[in-house]
């Protein structure tokens, strides 16, 4: 492991100038980390957008190498630090670092505010809200990574704290350990135009990058570019439409024959093989959506209005897929449901896929 004790002053100065980047990470490793960051943070931006009801954009990352002592030199301010531990599929940690003002604005938006009353200081409730937002954001990012890596990747609930980098370290590793610094620009509909920083120990970053490179089976930029376009179909569509006129070849949309309903007969004949498989059976009385502020204000006796009218049929799901509707009944001292409407066999099998 390289530490500052092993470096000369000239080498430390080179590190500060970024000249060590080529020695620590190869170009293909940088490209791989960039694509992973694009995929995870792109999904995370969508998740945050849903949480706050505002359009969120996170731009292409910039990757460099740093150390904890250099962070204290470059960013001598208090920040919100979110520690994310990968526990399944990948084992390691990374940190997300946000400005306190940005975190306060996000908290206010999550609680239904308009950013005009963002807290000046973050208390435990605010940090808990940021932690939940980051949990959902990085959880969705881990799901996207699972798709790319073709294996399950999970994270533990993130820990959140405020750290003044001028006075204390991030407590992620030894002070001299090299870190990969990934900086994104984050914008939220005229409310936030700022940066968000991700820090990853070099060993974990190289492990992640090399796994992706090995999964692709190649070590060139072409495969990573292919991955990037596969993860951004809208961009691929735009590029394809732009290039099509110059090719001189007539292109038309493919036409498929409609599927016949009798194709399900083969599925029905084999369904007996699955009859002993357990399924989760759920009855949904209704739904509603509330802000974190509303949830925090709940107490005994509070009434929550659902999106169903009194006496309206309830929805019946199997493994999260709708199969029928019914009405609630009481059997002895237990609730039950009487089925009043059910989908056809073909539709139910289709929904269970």
Walk me through the topology:
Elements: H1 9-17, H2 21-24, H3 27-52, E1 56-58, E2 62-66, H4 68-74, E3 78-88, E4 92-99, H5 100-110, H6 124-149, E5 154-155, E6 159-164, E7 179-188, E8 192-201, H7 202-216, H8 221-231, H9 233-243, H10 264-270, E9 281-284, H11 292-296, E10 314-318, E11 321-331, E12 334-342, H12 345-351
Antiparallel strand pairs: 1-7, 2-7, 3-4, 3-5, 3-6, 4-8, 7-8, 9-10, 10-11, 11-12
Helix pairs in contact: 3-6, 3-7, 3-8, 5-6
Features:
353 residues; alpha+beta; Chemotaxis protein chec; Surface presentation of antigens (SPOA); 2 domains; 8-stranded antiparallel sheet; 4-stranded antiparallel sheet; 12 strands; 24% strand; disordered N terminus
Short description:
With 353 residues, the protein is an alpha+beta fold. 39% of the residues lie in helices and 24% in strands. A hairpin with a 2-residue loop joins strand 10 (314-318) and strand 11.
Structural description of this entry:
The chain is α+β, with helices and mostly antiparallel strands. The chain contains twelve helices and twelve strands. The chain has two domains: 4-235, Chemotaxis protein chec (3-Layer(aba) Sandwich); 271-351, SpoA-like (Surface presentation of antigens (SPOA), Roll), CATH 2.30.330. The chain has helices at residues 9-17, 21-24, 27-52, 68-74, 100-110, 124-149, 202-216, 221-231, 233-243, 264-270, 292-296, 345-351, and strands at residues 56-58, 62-66, 78-88, 92-99, 154-155, 159-164, 179-188, 192-201, 281-284, 314-318, 321-331, 334-342. The two termini are 48 Å apart.
